[in-house]
Amino acid sequence: MSKKYDPAYKLEICKTIDSGHASTSEISRETGIPENTLYTWMKKYRANRERPFVGSGHILPENEETVRLRRENKDLREENEILKKAAALSDRARVSTLAGGNPARKGNSRPTGSESWSVRSNVCI
Hints:
rod-shaped, single chain, mainly alpha
């Protein structure tokens, strides 16, 4: 399992290496951090000197809008699926009512008690 280092500590080491005060090999020997790890840190540091070590859950400013739009897109797709299902249920209930059935009553579609058939529309009233 890899060891986790504080972003401020990584930044301090990268600045030390970048300034020429110590080489990657020297820092590796002094700290016990593998050279490959230090090279990875330096690559991130050189790519973005202001915020090279963005932790998990943190987003670089240039990626914030993309993440926000993806989240919004996902939410809208979920809402769309819910509306499709609701429309299908509504259509099914409407068709059942027009066919003479009572969507609240299962089984026998004949009117009972105070219900009666309308002659013109063949709908239970």
